[in-house]
Each structure stands twice: as C-alpha cells, then as structure tokens.
From TrEMBL:
Domain Asn/Gln amidotransferase: from-to ranges: 349-496
PROSITE patterns named in the record: GATB (PS01234)
NCBIfam families, sorted: gatB, PRK05477.1-2, PRK05477.1-3, PRK05477.1-4
PANTHER family assigned: GLUTAMYL-TRNA GLN AMIDOTRANSFERASE SUBUNIT B MITOCHONDRIAL AND PROKARYOTIC PET112-RELATED (PTHR11659), GLUTAMYL-TRNA(GLN) AMIDOTRANSFERASE SUBUNIT B, MITOCHONDRIAL (PTHR11659:SF0)
EC number(s) reported in the record: 6.3.5.-
Family the entry assigns: Belongs to the GatB/GatE family. GatB subfamily.
Annotated source species: Winogradskya humida
Catalytic activity, as annotated: L-aspartyl-tRNA(Asn) + L-glutamine + ATP + H2O = L-asparaginyl-tRNA(Asn) + L-glutamate + ADP + phosphate + 2 H(+); L-glutamyl-tRNA(Gln) + L-glutamine + ATP + H2O = L-glutaminyl-tRNA(Gln) + L-glutamate + ADP + phosphate + H(+)
Superkingdom to which the source organism belongs: Bacteria
Pfam families attached to this UniProt entry: GatB_N, GatB_Yqey
Name under which the protein is recorded: Aspartyl/glutamyl-tRNA(Asn/Gln) amidotransferase subunit B
Amino acid sequence: MSTTVLPTYDDAVARYEPVIGLETHVELGTNTKMFCGCPTEFGAEPNTQVCPVCLGLPGALPVANRAGIEATIRIGLALNCDIASWCRMARKNYFYPDMPKNFQTSQYDEPLCVDGYVDVEIEGETFRIEIERVHLEEDTGKSLHVGGATGRIHGATESLVDYNRAGIPLVEIVTKPVTGLGSRAPEIARAYVTELRDIIRSLGVSDVRMEQGSLRCDVNTSLNKPGDEWGTRTEAKNVNSLRSVERAVRSEIIRQAGVLDGGGRIHQETRHFQEDTGNTRPGRSKETATDYRYFPEPDLVPIAPDTAWVAELKAALPERPSSKRARLRVDWGISESDMQSVANAGAVELIEETILAGATAAGARKWWMGELARRANETGVELSLVGATPAQVAQLQTLVDEGKINDKLARQVLEGVVAGEGDPAVVMKTRGLEVVSDTGALQTAVDEAIAANPDVAAKIRDGKLAAAGALVGAVMKTTRGQADAKTVRELILARLS
Ligand code: ADP
Ligand code: MG
Ligand code: ZN
C-alpha cells in the first residue's frame, strides 16, 4: 500500500464533490418475531427465544407477522413513499453461523415501499434527502468470540452464537445518492439520521436506540472532481452514534481525497468505523460482488396490502416531529437554538409530558435540560432512562412553587427521586428536606445569628439594610439551607428595626 499525505478537510472539499448514501436498519419493536411466535425481549438468556422456524429446522414453515408489515408500511408512509400493492419476500442466500437458515428472508427487487423523501432542516435551510426504498427483512443472530483479547474472532479460543435476535423484524431504509452537499455532507448525513430516528420514534414502532443496535447505519461515501462522474463508493459499517455518522463521512472524505491526490484509486469495499480514532479501517472488499442467488420466498404468500388499509394508516400518522417542534417552540416561547438543544438532548416529549402533568414550560425545561441532562451525560444513559418521570418532575416543580422547598433543596430531592427513593413529596419527608418556614424555629436561629454578629446587627440598626444579607446567610448555614430566605429576612428586619 502506498503512503498518502492527507489533505485538510477544507482542501478536500474544495477540490472534490462528495456523494453520500445512507442505509439504515431499524429493529421493530413487535412483541413477536417476523415469521414465528417467539418473543423479542432484549437481554434474555441466550437461545431461550427460539423455535424450529427461526432456527431454520427442516420442515418448519414461516407465517408473516401482520404487525411487522403494518409498521413497515407506516414507516414508508411517514417517509412519503409509495406503497406496493403487491410484493414478495425474497431469499438472500449466504452461509454464516449467525444465520441458521443459511438464507435471510428479505426483499430484493420488490420492496414494500419506494420513492420517498425526508426533509432535513439545518439553521432554517431545508435539504431534501430522497429515499430509494424501504424494505422488510429479518435480523440475524449474534456471535460472541471468547478467549481472545479483542472480542474479535482472531485470537479467540471459541465462538458462541445466540439466536434470540434471529428472525426479529428489521426494516432497511436506503437513500438515493445524495449530491450537491459540498462541505456540509457530514452534518447533513447526521441531521438525516437524527430526523429519521425522530420520525420512527414518533410512530412508536421501534425504540431506535443506536447504542443498543435497534438503529444501525451504514454510510456510503464517494468523491468526484467537479464535472466528472460519481466516484467509487466505500461503505462504513459499525457507525453506532449520530456523532459517528458525521465523523465517518468527514474522515472518509479526507482519506479518499488523499488517495485520489496521490493518483491512486478508491476500491469498493466495506470499512469499519472506529469509535476511538474517528477513522475507518478496511474490511471486506466488494469488488467481486457476492452472488446472493436471490429468489422469491416460496413458503410465504405475497404481501398485498389493501388500499383502504393503507389509506387508513396514512390518515392516522402522528404529527411530523419537525412540525411538532415548531409548534412547541412557539408554545414554550423559546428560541430555535434552544429548541434544537432540547431536541438533541431527546427532551421534547419529556418536557411536553411534564407540562401536561402540570408544570410550566420554563419549570419543566429547567429540570430536564439542567440537572437531569447533566446526570444523563455523566452516567451515559438516555435522558428518558435517567430515573425521574415527567410526573415526578412536575411534582418537584410544584413543591418549589408552593414554597415547600427552594431550588437548592429541590436538587437534593431530585437526587433522591433518581436514586429510587420515591416521589418528590416522599423524598422531601424522608430526607427531612422541607423548608423551615415555621417562625418559632426560625426566630431562634435569627436571634443566634444576631448575637453572633453584633457589628452586622449594628449596621442594620443604623439603616444599612443591605447588610441583612450576611445574617440571612448565617441563618441559612445553621438551618442547612432549609430556611425560607424571604421569611428569614423579614424576621431579621423586624428584630432590628
Ligand atoms: P449495497 O447492498 O451494496 O450496500 P445498496 O443499494 O443497498 O447497496 O446501498 C447502496 C447505497 O449507496 C445507497 O444508499 C446508494 O444511494 C449509495 N450510493 C450509490 N452509489 C454511490 C456513490 N457513487 N457514492 C455514494 N453513495 C452511493
Ligand atoms: Mg449495503
Ligand atoms: Zn421462533
């Protein structure tokens, strides 16, 4: 391999035009698998959710899961696709240990949904990403290589395979080649996957979690000189986060520009994205196309969705996430960039539900985007799984509004809620965090503070009311922040006037 000098990103996109294409796999959240009745729950003991059909035992016959077909059609409709009135599943033949049937039931030249688009908005500008097809297939099992240092097959002493995932419905969404993006290709690729995730989540057909693999993305990139034909593409696999989608396109643009600058040529291959370096390394060459010997699946009847059913599904689609964001932004009275941060944090629905549970927009946003977002970041969990529910956040804000706790105490209450100690009112009681506004108890603390700070007290007597802050601080300290500052101030001034 020849060594190449890498250009800067700006140099690369000044000289070459990138073309990108995204293939996204979405694991559907159906209760049972696509062609048998096995459960689909994540994280079960290996090989406990299997049967003769998904293990591909001789004589076993598949039956299509209506919920999987319905979810695929709804995804297609939400992506503005045409829905086929008649199509078939196909066998994609290949041999791999995680594929017990030795073929994957998929779709080939008769996808269920075709010719759609997704509009992606970045800073007020809209980019249309065209969708080539949305098809239905089944997931494979999972291999586990043990005994080696890397978890890869090289150096492993044995390999285990878990078929629980085999047969779970999977929807593949393939874009047409996207051109004309120039230097913005990486960020638009990311924005597309983000929008796609939000749309699918709004349909409730998948939890679309990239870190758990229910949303997976392959990123194709090629470069050409202006006016030339499209270049040869590479396909980056293993892209497991939104940030990685952007980094994969960017690093591949730089790498390919380096090769082309040096007079080399790009080989059509799959490459593996590496989280640590942000680069891709070569994988399987695709120049000799694998022959999958596709043919129509003989054991399943064709899929012929009734037009009335499709129209019904279309009419019942939920509000588009982008329209919903625009509407909520106005309701909440926040800027576009604040709304963008809320969306990026995955907090739109959480804040919406918190408001429905009785909080103000400002109150709801404050907790989700402040304390809870910080916690989610620190622990690396999604905001929705951080340990507090919208109802609890609304209750917390109510306690603050009623003056039962102040902001500082509220943070401690929230800590207890997240730790599973119960609802805010319960945590407040059990941790003894209620604001002390009982004047009897406070009076004693106030008198002690006055006695301990005679100079300050003298100033206040002389009419320098600003000095009262120091005494309020002293009382807050002795009451461990549990006093109501306003009441304390009133008591001090009453004593010293
Ligand atoms: P494969 O199964 O070989 O990956 P697919 O048709 O499923 O092929 O996906 C190919 C993806 O690559 C599509 O998203 C397509 O739009 C995109 N693509 C095709 N040609 C190019 C190119 N020259 N540069 C970048 N992307 C491309
Ligand atoms: Mg592919
Ligand atoms: Zn099964």
